[in-house]
Design goal:
Helix content: 40-55%
Structural class: alpha+beta
Largest sheet: 3 strands, mixed
CATH class of the domain at 29-95: Alpha Beta
CATH topology of the domain at 29-95: Histidine-containing Protein, Chain: A
Strand order of the largest sheet: 1-2-3
Order of helices and strands: HHEEHE
Distance between the termini: 60 Å
Oligomer: single chain
Shape: elongated
Number of strands: 3
CATH architecture of the domain at 29-95: 2-Layer Sandwich
Length: about 100
């Protein structure tokens, strides 16, 4: 029985630590359009994505600009999707 308790405790701990990789998802305060846009921009910058524009209206994020590759475009979309408060991501990103 103690082994099961240890496994359960470890699972709970790992879920808490690994499940919180994006702190903004855990915030109790609703995010404003400006805050969502900033979080999306921060995520893209952390992934080395530059030159894309972010517009947010009521949780709908519109990404525009020119990406250097399909992989960069796809990562930008994922970066937007992982922000709490985002309901839809509109892709208006063109390719070079």
């Amino acid at each position: 029985m103690p082994t099961i308790a240890k496994i359960a405790a470890l699972s709970f701990l790992l879920t808490g630590v690994l499940g919180c990789s994006h702190w903004n998802r855990m915030s109790a305060t609703p995010l404003t359009n400006a805050t969502i846009a900033q979080q999306v921009s921060n995520n893209m910058t952390a992934d080395g994505i530059r030159g894309l524009y972010v517009d947010v209206r009521n949780g709908v994020v519109t990404l525009s600009g020119t990406a250097t590759s399909m992989a960069e475009r796809d990562q930008a979309i994922r970066d937007a999707q992982k922000v709490r408060g985002v309901t839809v991501v509109v892709n208006r990103i063109s390719m070079r």
